[in-house]
Batch of 2 targets.
Target 1
Amino acid sequence: MNQKELAKIAGVSSATISRVINDDPNVKPETKEYVREIIKKYDYVANINARNLRASSSNTVGFLISNFNNPFFIKIYQGIESICRKHGYIVIIGITNERVEEQEKAIDLFLSYQVSGIIGSFVDVDNKILNKLQRLQKNVISLDREFDILDFDTIVIDNEYGGIEQVNYLHSLGHKKIAVIYGKLDSPGKERLNGFEKGMANNGLKSKEEYKICGNYNEPDAYYATIKLLQLKDPPTAIITHNNLMCIGAYKALKDLKINIPDNVSLIGFDNFEFADYLEPGITLIDRPINQMGEMAGEMLFDRLENKYIGETRRIVLPVKLKINKSCNFLTTQ
Amino acid sequence: MNQKELAKIAGVSSATISRVINDDPNVKPETKEYVREIIKKYDYVANINARNLRASSSNTVGFLISNFNNPFFIKIYQGIESICRKHGYIVIIGITNERVEEQEKAIDLFLSYQVSGIIGSFVDVDNKILNKLQRLQKNVISLDREFDILDFDTIVIDNEYGGIEQVNYLHSLGHKKIAVIYGKLDSPGKERLNGFEKGMANNGLKSKEEYKICGNYNEPDAYYATIKLLQLKDPPTAIITHNNLMCIGAYKALKDLKINIPDNVSLIGFDNFEFADYLEPGITLIDRPINQMGEMAGEMLFDRLENKYIGETRRIVLPVKLKINKSCNFLTTQ
DNA sequence: TTCTCTGTTGTATACGTATACAATAGATTA
DNA sequence: TAATCTATTGTATACGTATACAACAGAGAA
């Protein structure tokens, strides 16, 4: 069923159908009502492909993520979705799995959909990707990641500060043997690690190579990293993790090894997660305003799309905050 | 940049461009290679709206869910997405928030996108919705919910059995004062509650009205339901919850009330969740093969779409299993 | 040579929509 | 009355693609 067929049934022209659908004021009220009844009766829905083709745009926003393994992206998605819905836009999801090839495919998909804008946690950006993104003018928001080459609105958190604070807090409890399970060295990963090193240096602590293990931002790698750390001849008394999944991995490893947190080992996380407060012990961590991020990204994008903001690229750095719970303890003399 | 423009640049016709994109064998290999270079050079991507319009189909699957608050749907989404990706299809998400009006909008959206099929956890289905769905022939999978009116492939779990097993287990531990926090009375909700009643009756237990509270499948309602239960003059010794979010709500309430699980109150859940094993105590629950459900739904759909299966409506009932952990204990004499 | 066949490319068109423009009837004005 | 204006509707078209069909050149056969 299309406009033409429906028009024939209704005894009007297809233009009238179209006008009624788009609530054109130049239609006689009775006609409008009559056509609306016909539309309802036949459950007619306009073909969005034809619509978008004709309009040369699609009221669609692309949301680029690694995947949904990290609940971080789910929260962000919900925020973006609600803003888009409010503006009558659809979100399509592109998954990179942290691979540049998949990222490129996802971006091509977005472009083929004629998206109005993209909100993305980009894996890596070279000139090729940049060229593609530039077709969207400034309607791109880089979320959680930064790239020198990328001159788009950006929302990040203060990763370095978070990294420093983790060390500061453990140091204040008397810890000296501090290990870190860090993530992939993308932009937030590097900054968190920089923060770690700065924190150590500021407090006059020595950053030992064997205390630094990459957990690739995922749970199993962090699990094994934790086990490795504890098998060292001189194991650390505190473990820092640089994201939520790795914190969970470390927590599970410590539990499985029957190591008491925080009496034997203190554990501090980065980024909150659903059960952080309800594990035993509750997890001390660097908290970030994740609920804001999605909506903020959405709103920044629509400010651009609706020309409410025309101007220089914006860079928002959201603050992080140490949230103390019970997974860290004063270092007892051993 | 479209085919016509690119064709002019390349010095061929737009038909040739189109043929190269679709890897038509009737193109001279050298031409193909040459055109591919041009496409790459100009980063040309075909307009998917025009494509879908021309094709009168869209290689798109609609996935209908309540929302992403329940991690259940995330797992399912991941399964469906991976199967769709394998087949070159895109998933678009429709959110109902468990409201029929939003469900209708989501389905209209799917239809306007010319989806090839829908996998959905439907809120409710009347003739109107049914009519719309029937446009997709049999390419609809009803997930987790059942409706008499709906003659489509269905994947559910054995909800009633799960409900019975919860009671059986608690009874085997000596509990008699068993409360249940049940969910919305949709199809699985009803069956779980039926299971509860049957289990109680089978074991000669009396099902008290004041021990039955609706937790609406969400965490806060279950939290308050739990508090209410414990404020009763004669509080229950065991609490059954009928989904994961409500189990979490009950767990948090008990924790916040400093009530020991399982010594003071036993808690049993329905449906697994990330931290069930790592809470203290680990949660005893009815486990279901959730990882299978998404992929299975995807595969069932593509069997239809690719005519690998043509036939009667299928109904798959996946088994559930009691997973014993430490949140239930023998009833100690009071 | 002439004809046929094959491989390759181009031309023209339909998909369903929104809208510019044309057309019409009826109302208003001079 | 004729002229003008307004409200409403219809007609024709472009959006970008994929493909049916036409066209053509060159190879091979008769």
Note: Residues 2-4, 14-15, 18-19, 21-22, 24, 46-55 of chain A lie near DNA strand C (CB under 10 Å from a C1').
Target 2
Amino acid sequence: MSETSLPEILRARGLRLTAQRQLVLEAVHELGHATPEQLHHAVREVAAGVNITTIYRTLELLEDLGLVTHTHLSHGSPTYHPVGEDQHAHLVCRDCGAVSEIEPAVLAPLANGLAEERGFQLDIGHVALFGTCGDCGGAK
Amino acid sequence: MSETSLPEILRARGLRLTAQRQLVLEAVHELGHATPEQLHHAVREVAAGVNITTIYRTLELLEDLGLVTHTHLSHGSPTYHPVGEDQHAHLVCRDCGAVSEIEPAVLAPLANGLAEERGFQLDIGHVALFGTCGDCGGAK
DNA sequence: TTTCGTGCAAATGGTTTGCACATGG
DNA sequence: CCATGTGCAAACCATTTGCACGAAA
């Protein structure tokens, strides 16, 4: 359900299996969508010495290997999440900052429309939609 | 068709009308969607001494006044564009980096769906959709 | 052993802040 | 005049890079 086949994938490319790489991948799975800094914290709780630089380099690698992706949820840092099974897009509330996920099905019609009319291949896993969530919209 | 009512809006708030504020607003209208840095360049061509700091502060102000908004088009800097008339969303190609606009109508069904099912009020002008554009997708 | 990965420190790029001077009202 | 704006320089924060040491194969 997690830890895809990191060892094999790495070996297949002649890359090395290291504790850091395993830990970062685990953290991405655990945290869902997390920034490099958040992942750094998570990893540090297990292995104190790991440097933030390594987090960045490892995320780049894992993304290259197709094991994780990142999305830009408004403001600063991108957030990373595991690739695979559960493709999902994000709804971001600009008032309270809450992030929720939506199933790709919701975007399917839009994706099809864009593909037909413009030949644009929508990357659903990368979609972040901004607006006001129910709680903020109703209350405020 | 441009230069809304900057002077009045400012006066209404007891703020001052300055050359810089006019220039930044004009630049936003001219450039469409531009990063702070691009706006800085544009403004400098007219008034050489304007500092990048002022661009940032002015953009924040103009956004606060409801005259401009910003969108995060993937990577680094946000891009600013005038608010009003032509609300539009963006399509960003992750291969070639091209940015194109789509009419809000395309997103209307999605927006309605989200509103009904989740009470989420989609901010269409803020939407950036990532994927592969026709040129890159077909060719590659 | 040999190459790849990591930690560390410094460089970078974008954005923000503090402060004194300039200027609009 | 007086308060707000601006320019400048320095501070910041996230991310990247260079280099020498440490570790996987």
Note: Strands of chain A lie at 68-71, 79-82, 89-93, 99-102, 121-122, 128-132.
